[in-house]
Amino acid sequence: MSFFRLKDLIRAVRVCKTAADERGVIQRESAAIRTSFKEVDSQDARYVNIQKLLYIYLLGYPVQFGQLECLKLVASPKFADKRVGYLGVTLLLDEKQDILTLLTNSLKTDMHSTDDYIVGLALGTLSNVASSEVAYDLVDEVERLLDSPRSYLRKKATLAGVRIIRREPELFTPFLHRAKSLLGDKHHGVQMGAVALLAEMCNHTQEALDEGRRLVPVIVNQLRALLGSGSSPEHDVGGISNPFLQVAILRLLRVVARGSQHAADELNDVLTLVATQTDSSKNVGTAILYECAVTALAIPSEQALRVMAINMLGKFLGNRDNNVRYVALATLSAAVITEAPSVQRHRATVIQCLRDNDISIRRRALDLSFALINESNVKPIVTEILRVLPHADLEFKPSMVYRLSAAITLFGDSLEWRIDNMLRVLSLGGKYVNARDMFKFIRLIALEADENLQRRAARISFALLERDVSQEKMVVAGTWLVGEYADLLVARSNNAAAVAASPTSPVGGLDDDDLDILGALGKPLAKKGDSPDSSGSAPVLAALDPSEELPQAIPEPADIVRLLSAIAGSSVVSNSSRHIALTALAKLSGRFADSSATLASIRTALGKHTQSMDVETQSRAVEFGKLLSQELDAVRTGVVDRMPAPEYTDVPYEEYVLNPTAMRMKALTIIKRPAMQPVDFVEGESAKEAAVRAAAEASKQSVVSDLLNLMDEAPAAVTASQPATAAKPVDALADLLGSATLSSTSPPTKTAAVHHVASPTESSGGFATEGLDSEYDIYNSHGLRITLTPSKKPTLPTVVDLLATFYNEGEMAVSGLNFLVAVPKSQKLQIQPPSGQHISVGATVTQLVRVSNPTKTAIRLRIKLGYTVDGQAQENMFEYNGFPASVV
Amino acid sequence: MIRFILVQNRQGKTRLEKWYSQYSNQERHKLKAEVHRTVASRDQKHQSNFVEFHNHRIVYRRYAGLFFCFCIDTNDNELAYLEGIHLFVEVLDSYHGNVCELDLVFNFYLVYAVLDEMILAGEIQETSRSVILGRLDQLSSLE
């Protein structure tokens, strides 16, 4: 059964009650169409069949068998047939299919047609599906049509040009010659196409970029014409003349002026004009202003313009439209790298957006808030973020508490403030704190805090735990603190003064009120255990205001035992918290060894768990019970004494945790002018570029020679120049210097200098004074360029961080990126996962490789690289040792 | 540039699909389902019309039961493309005279014709409603 017309088929599908019915109808119809293709060779039948087939395709069924028929239909002389045929081609074929080359002839013939509409159809099809081969075959036809007297064809031809350039960038010559005349075309459609075409060429070739820079005055004139009286009223939207063209031109200007101060200066006036003249009350107006701000920030424009751009975006934050706030936050986040002071001015508005109705705006506001944090504003921002933390979306919380920990650690000035705020983080979001951050916090208190701060932390923890035991890491850390510092925790006459100093804390031991609180809270804790539904944080308890002083409690030993045993007995805490609580109880026996009443209550508390179903809980309870028995009095003190501070190397937080865009934006000179302006822009620019290129060449050269060296004599030389006896003093000296100059930027050079002295044989690199924080090209092929940027933290003199940056400079996306590194045995290696495995065109991906190099031998890397580009898997293995000798 | 354009209804049935980048048939199927899941589940009132999608961004707008989605590069101007969607819908509306989903179902090949007059090679080609409509009228008189 075959339905006669398209309409009938659509109706038949629409009345189907079930998916099975629909499948049946489609199957029958597909079979009928297939038969018809075989038996009937008439274009009329084909026309109907292809139409039906395309409908079936849209429903999601396979119709590949119709591809050839589409090509046949295209050959028909009738416009209607061709239209459906070409539509079928664009939908059913993709550029990977060989069959596409069969299309080339039809396209060529149609582009020579006398009927403009048929030429238009062919150009449209070419623009949408052309492959590399088709691009080569038809570029001449497209070129011819660029000069067509019909604007309708010129505009389609420019966009066909865009497609050709995307597939084969080296075909740019004919298009570049016409760029000027096309840009000046009086039809807006042609201008739109010309702008897109020039931008595309500039992205691919330097020659086009140079031409684009020469054309800046022409482009600026077109933009000025748009700002003036309406040159083409039918393109106006909401009283603004062709906003789409304005946006496209601003975007093109961004492409050509990146990295050129000369071009940026030419744009200064027109960008200011756009910013001041555009009506921001309509969406189209904001779209233009937004593009204008992005352009002003992305080129080395003058400071006044950049500030204006930031203020424009700041104003967007107060806009009622979600979309406008969204783009403003995204742009400000990227701009914070270069324009931190101007962005800081809008901090209050950004923080307001943390409470926005739109989750994506909240997410962006959060990112930006963290990116804004520095030494001077860390306190208010952390307080604000802590305030929203309890109400934040679940998916944000883990990253929020992580970044809060990083911000507090990196920027907090006083130890007391850091401890207080880490406690706030734990008490408000302890469920989401990861174990490493919690250990860092405990380590901080055990290692760096003095007795007063340890006491303070323990007292606050005690008070917080009495309020709430639902935040897991708070329970673990707090219980540990209470157990470890129990002797400091209780009231002693000599520290009453310290406690009295803090205004809101209960003064001088337990008075009646405190007893009330303790009495009340001992019970709720137990009650909580009985009723499973109260496991969430009770609203009253969660209302800890981050701007207020933290509560402190000064309990008696008996209160401590009661709290710990309540925690151990609570059913809402995790097993690991319970284990810590039991251990803390055991520790109390050492802290309060002289009070037999306390010991007795500890034994009772432990005794409750000797029958626990959890093996670990039970064994701890039994073992500690045994430990507390009288026959072990002699050894007990040693066992439960204060723990030595944990010894393990701390991995410090990196600043990019707070501002990931900082990682992505390497070449700031492209978008920002240097502080000292060279007098001659053009020459200064090209000279700098030349220098950069020369340096890249040089480093490439040295890679080659070093690689050769590595094969025969280099390893021997390294071991010879670093005798075991000499290595140690160098290390010690380097450590000394590294830690002595914590905040200055000199450690790299100093360590370099030390190294210089120690092993003069290696210092022939010539880079001895620089080397760190600059980019080294290590690989460039198939459009993928990889660089390594070594850097060091002053606190870790033996560790070199190598930031690998993968630039996709080709025109195909790179996927399945796999970057493996090996180092000599004397060095240790840590590889972080990459920021992505897929690099779209023009994007970058970064990956951190950390080399710990205690013997300070030269860094040699063996690299295994795998990726897929254009469907082809690439595998490479190579060595790199092009770092100057100072990078060790 | 625009990577692809999808028009889907609330049930996820595709009413229009146009691919300006290279995607295999399999990828197309996957993307259609994914876009529908991403876009339809969003809160239409309180959320912006932009959503991150793999390495790109989707700009979408809902008209009655239909979602019009443009997948664009992340450095493109979202606000301008949102306006572009509106222009496309306006043109469809004038062309069909008060357009509804059924018009798009029965005349899907005409919807493609409209789109081809407005967007080519992933770039906006013509932004004047009157120019596009005038052209479309001439084209239909040829059939």
UniProtKB/TrEMBL annotation, chain A:
Subcellular location: Cytoplasmic vesicle membrane; Golgi apparatus
One Gene Ontology biological process: intracellular protein transport
Keyword Membrane included in the entry's annotation: yes
Domain GAE: residue ranges: 771-884
SUPFAM superfamilies for this protein: ARM repeat, Clathrin adaptor appendage domain
Keyword vocabulary terms for this entry: Cytoplasmic vesicle, Golgi apparatus, Membrane, Protein transport, Transport
Family: Belongs to the adaptor complexes large subunit family.
The protein, known as: AP-1 complex subunit gamma
Organism per entry: Coemansia aciculifera
From TrEMBL, chain B:
Top-rank lineage group of the source organism: Eukaryota
Protein name: AP-2 complex subunit sigma
Lineage: Eukaryota, Fungi, Fungi incertae sedis, Zoopagomycota, Kickxellomycotina
